[in-house]
């Protein structure tokens, strides 16, 4: 590691070589190969970059979080918050890991910022007994400043994340002046482990079992990945450079402007990810929902709901044992691990209803001057999830037909 860092500091190194070696080092540090740690990953940010007009790290779109990964994270955090509200008790470590993942996912905070958080930095701003609306905020300390500063970055956070943190504080009985998260000697390693433990917990059981058996590699997401995801997501939603710089705690607009410059390429990548590659679709579809079954064989609860102006039923079952689901039936089922799609269900009708909703939503959004309505991207993800189930059912039927011919 020391030798490679020294090599990156030489004056005659080309820009392409510099960033190629830097990329390789980041992979080695993220995977914690012998001699490389997650602390080294954070230190790589401080290596002087060669003089160039390209801010590639802020326009690097190959490693932006996939829409399905973001959907899994947000839905899992929401469901965990709903379970806690209903009285379910989680292990303290799982609760802490989820709180760290949620904070990093929505704020893009660096590990050193999370390490400096005190309990008093987390605030409950308003609570309405009539509507049940609760608003939370957090005061993040600035990082990577050239001078010592006591200023804090004031950010509102979603009630689901705020509820997780509030429950964590109550469970641990922390005092206002205590550290919110005790991270030991290495904040980057602690935060990275917490993020990936939480994501693995939220992943499908089949994938967790494969990772445990060593048959599948664990997906590694670093705090830096989540931070860049916040910047790119804000730019995709039309946020200004000033707004992006404020949320990420930047003292200038340079990085924010480069996030914005990457939005056309990001839009193209997202469009391709949402339906062009059928092989990739089938691979992802296997991990989105539960096992396929038929309407005749299923004896449990059957999913029924309205999408658009159409009632949809006999499309699948729900395998939840407690009978409580915090999500909207049918609309949210196609990306749920508890959903058991019926091979003979009319999933195409559900897809047609969602497509109709997307068209109407785009028309309304354009009419009011909000072409980047975030609901559009949510509907696009739902559309892809339904298409994946349709492809999976078709593959299952073709396989059955082939087996019958063989017999």
From TrEMBL:
All residue ranges annotated as the Tyr recombinase domain in the record: 60-274
| Leader sequence segment | none
- What keywords does the record list, in alphabetical order? DNA recombination
Q: Does the keyword Protease apply?
A: no
Q: What is this protein called?
A: Site-specific integrase
Return one Gene Ontology term, BP aspect.
DNA recombination
The record lists the lineage as: Bacteria, Pseudomonadati, Pseudomonadota, Gammaproteobacteria, Enterobacterales
- InterPro entries associated with the record: DNA_brk_join_enz (IPR011010), Integrase-like_cat_sf (IPR013762), Integrase_catalytic (IPR002104)
- Any one GO molecular-function label of the UniProt entry: DNA binding
Keyword presence, Phosphoprotein: no
Q: What PROSITE patterns does the annotation carry? A: TYR_RECOMBINASE (PS51898)
């Amino acid at each position: 590691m020391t030798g490679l860092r020294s090599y990156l500091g030489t004056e005659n190194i080309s820009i392409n070589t510099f960033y190629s070696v830097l990329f390789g080092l980041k992979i080695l540090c993220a995977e914690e190969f012998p001699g490389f740690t997650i602390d080294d990953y954070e230190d790589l940010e401080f290596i002087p970059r060669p003089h160039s007009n390209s801010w590639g790290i802020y326009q690097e779109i190959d490693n932006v979080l996939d829409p399905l990964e973001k959907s899994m994270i947000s839905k899992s955090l929401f469901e965990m918050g709903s379970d806690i509200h209903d009285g379910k008790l989680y292990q303290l470590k799982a609760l802490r890991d989820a709180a760290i993942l949620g904070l990093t996912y929505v704020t893009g905070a660096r590990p050193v910022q999370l390490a400096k958080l005190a309990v008093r930095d987390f605030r409950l701003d308003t609570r309405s007994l009539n509507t049940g609306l609760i608003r939370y905020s957090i005061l993040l300390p600035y990082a990577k400043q050239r001078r010592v500063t006591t200023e804090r970055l004031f950010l509102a956070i979603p009630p689901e994340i705020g509820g997780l943190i509030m429950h964590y504080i109550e469970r641990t009985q922390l005092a206002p002046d205590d550290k919110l998260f005790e991270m030991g000697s290495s904040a980057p390693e602690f935060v990275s482990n917490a993020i990936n433990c939480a994501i693995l917990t939220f992943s499908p059981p089949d994938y967790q079992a494969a990772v445990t058996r060593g048959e599948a590699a664990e997906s590694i997401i670093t705090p830096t990945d989540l931070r860049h995801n916040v910047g790119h997501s804000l730019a995709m939603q039309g946020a200004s450079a000033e707004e992006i710089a404020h949320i990420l705690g930047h003292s200038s607009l340079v990085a924010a402007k480069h996030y914005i410059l990457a939005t056309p390429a990001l839009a193209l990548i997202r469009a391709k990810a949402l339906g062009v590659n059928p092989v990739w679709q089938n691979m992802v579809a296997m991990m989105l929902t539960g096992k396929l079954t038929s309407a005749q064989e299923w004896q449990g609860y059957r999913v029924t709901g309205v999408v658009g102006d159409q009632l949809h039923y006999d499309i699948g079952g729900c395998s939840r044992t407690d009978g409580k689901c915090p999500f909207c039936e049918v609309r949210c089922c196609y990306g749920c691990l508890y959903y058991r799609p019926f091979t003979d269900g009319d999933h195409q009708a559900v897809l047609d209803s969602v497509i109709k909703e997307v068209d109407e939503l785009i028309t309304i959004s354009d009419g009011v001057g909000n072409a980047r309505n975030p609901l559009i991207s949510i509907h696009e993800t739902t559309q892809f999830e339904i298409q994946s189930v349709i492809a999976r059912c078709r593959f299952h039927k073709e396989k059955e037909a082939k087996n019958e011919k063989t017999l």
